[in-house]
Amino acid sequence: MLAHVANRRSIFPQFFTDQAVDRSVLSALLDAANQAPSHKKLEPWRFRVYTGAGKATLMHDMATIYEAGGPDKKWDEGLQKKFGEKVEQSPVVIAIFLHREHPNPTLPEWEEVAAVACAVENLWTSLDAFNLGGYWSSPGFLCGDYGQWPDAAPNERCLGLFYLGYYEAPELPRRRGAWEEKVTWYEG
Question: Rounded mean pLDDT of 18-27?
């Protein structure tokens, strides 16, 4: 498992091949995501998986959300190209949602956001086992209010998109500072 954590890195859509990702692999990845911890075991993560022709629905939803941002917001050719290219280059795009079943003061929203992030990290570190790559993107216009996404429940909001696929990418260094510089020890 530590090797999968060490191998986790962002692989961007321009490096994805057109090889489809089998549904059984996606199921294994989503099962890994589902193993994440959550306060009160509420499991606040929800995912929408877009593949093949289903990615047209994602593009339509993105345009709808963008244009709902105000009268001056028009989904133009530039946005279609920018986001359409990433979606088309990706065999799979997963929309990541926070689902707040029981919002209350004893369960702050940040804890549920953290649980969703843990689910995404579980999925992300599991990609290595299947020789897949991916990355989490959070365009501001998509990551807005509860109920903003078409067909979302009033207690759901998008936290981003996860692009994934098989890839052919150069080995890029993953520069990380020493963990020892980020830890303070208190020992007795």
Answer: 98
C-alpha 1: how far from chain center: 21
Query: Residue 87 belongs to a domain with what CATH number?
Result: 3.40.109.10
- Reported as a pLDDT band with limits 50, 70 and 90, residue 137 is very high
Q: What's the pLDDT at 76?
A: 93
- The token duo for 81 is 């190209």
- In contact, 151 and 184? CB cutoff 8 Å: no
Q: What is the token pair recorded at 72?
A: 């001056």
What is the average pLDDT across 34-40?
95
The answer to whether position 89 is within a domain reads yes
Residues of the domain holding 99: 13-169
In a domain, 177, yes or no: no
Task: Return the structure tokens found at 143.
Answer: 């990551």
Q: So what's the pLDDT on residue 1? A: 62
User: What is the reported pLDDT for 171?
Assistant: 80
Please classify residue 111 by burial: count the beta carbons closer than 10 Å to its beta carbon, then call 0-12 exposed, 13-18 middle and 19+ buried: middle
